[in-house]
Sequence to fold (250 residues):
Amino acid sequence: MKKRQWLVTILVSITALAAVTLVINNFMVEKNSVDSSTPTLEKGAQLLLPPIGSPLATGPAEPDPTQSPANTLLTTDPNPVTPNSLATSIATLLPTPSPEQGIIPRKIKIPAINVDTFVEKVGVTRDGNMDVPQNIWNVGWFGEGGYKPGSPGNAVIAGHLDAPSTRAVFWDLDKLKRGDKIILSDLTGRSLTFEVTNSHIYPYNAAPLMAIFGPSPEPHLNLITCGGIFDPTTYNYNKRLVVFSRLSIT
Fold:
């Protein structure tokens, strides 16, 4: 029971995986007309994951570990969550994949929806939530405690849905269909191709958690973003879109 409660905490926090959005839809603009200024949060908008705050940036950019705090936008959730004792790594719940299996992804390409961007490695925040990519045009691989893409198990990559006045990297994720390709590559140039098998929209608090994050005898890759309706009273989307894929053997 405790194991499932912990996984519920992880998926619920994928709250963040919609990025920040305005409740009023007419503030949305096309990706091709992205404003050059950094998005700012407004009341009724929500970060992708962390309940306390995280940096955001616009435009595809490689993560810079030396970036000065002065160059990032820090925001605070209107309803911060008090850290709790359950905020331990999901690695304590899942088997550790062999280091010889899989890759550490650095780039992701999804030709069907014109995604070609960087992959950031994320873990869990001090509040026990899955962390969020720092850039709204990057994606976050759940690498600290999760599975490597290409190893047996369910690797998870999450991306923002939108931000104030713009759409983000996974805005078109719902357009993927069976057979579409997802290509991951690491720093050495090694690449793996996954094929979409199906997708499903779940209530944010009623998803098959082990099927998304848990072990599997075969290599799978699951992409997650927010969906459904944004509720300004809870600062949360009421749905989660999950795209399931499996390693393509050629």
Notes: The first strand starts at residue 107 and ends at 110. Strands lie at 107-110, 115-122, 139-142, 153-159, 162-163, 166-167, 181-185, 191-203, 219-231, 236-247. The domain at 2-23+42-61+102-247 is CATH 2.40.260.10 (Sortase; Chain: A;). Residues 98 and 151 are 8 Å apart (CA to CA).
